[in-house]
Amino acid sequence: MAYRYRIDASTRTVIGEGEGVLTLKDVLTARDQLSQDPAFDSTFALLIDLTGVERLDLDGSQVQCIADGGPLSKSSPRAIVVCNTGSFGYARMYQAYSGFAGIELVAVFRDRAAALTWLRSVMPKPATQACDPTCTNSLPL
Fold it and tell me: 101 vs 128, which has greater pLDDT?
């Protein structure tokens, strides 16, 4: 398979990595597997690393299909890492189509470390419980 993913639950990030020739079928297969993965949470961030991709065998309508759908929430940030001009063009097309679909947090990088830093900076902080509901030391109102 030219596209695979892994989940880093500690950073709430799905890391997708492509290699060789990447097709729509590769992406949709990985997307289906991800949506069935019990470790997956739709609010996780997504890092798409295309630095191992030699060629993207996709057209514009297929990029739009990828950008429009998927198991992630619209508020989940997505970072794409590329290393060549062709992949950069596809990534920017994905970014534009994502924006049309109401997905605002998409950025394209040429450096994986910079992409991870950006993802961590825009990730919402997990909600914490403000008060212990079993606490009996409450002040009367």
Answer: 101
pLDDT tens figures, 24-79: 999 999 999 999 999 999 999 999 999 999 999 999 999 999 998 789 999 999 99
> Which structural domain range is residue 80 located in?
3-122
**Domain-located, residue 139:** no
d(CA 108, CA 92): 7
What is the rounded distance in angstroms from the CA atom of residue 72 to the CA atom of residue 137? 41
Pairwise CA distance, residues 19 & 53, whole Å: 4
Query: pTM of this prediction?
Result: 0.86
Q: State how many domains the chain has.
A: 1
CATH number, domain containing residue 34: 3.40.50.10600
CA torsion, points 134, 136, 140, 141, in degrees to nearest 10? -10
